[in-house]
Amino acid sequence: DIPVIPDLEEVQEEDFVLQVAAPPSIQVNRVMTYRDLDNDLMKYSAFQTLDGEIDLKLLTKVLAPEHEVREDDVGWDWDHLYTEVSSELLTEWDQLQMENEDPVGQPRHP
């Protein structure tokens, strides 16, 4: 059987006014904010141990607050990033090459 595309005249005869498409069903998982995570960490003792065996109290005492670790979003420009990394690598390679040469400019032979 070959599927047939209906003619426009046939489609116009059908009444689509009363038909409603079903809404898409998606599951939205809410991502917790830093504030929620901080509050939960200090409020619930369940976060004080990992797998019921590892004590995390020392770690939670030295965690940095949100305002100290938050950074502004910075857009990356591929061309700029590539040029910057390439330049740094070339500079490092040139320095290594200079270190491997004798003071008179002749390469060392072991």
TrEMBL record:
Pfam family, one: IFT43
GO cellular component: cilium; intraciliary transport particle A
TM region positions: none
Any GO BP annotation: intraciliary retrograde transport
Domain of life of the native organism: Eukaryota
Entry keywords, A to Z: Cilium biogenesis/degradation
Family from the record: Belongs to the IFT43 family.
Name of protein: Intraflagellar transport 43
Organism: Loxodonta africana
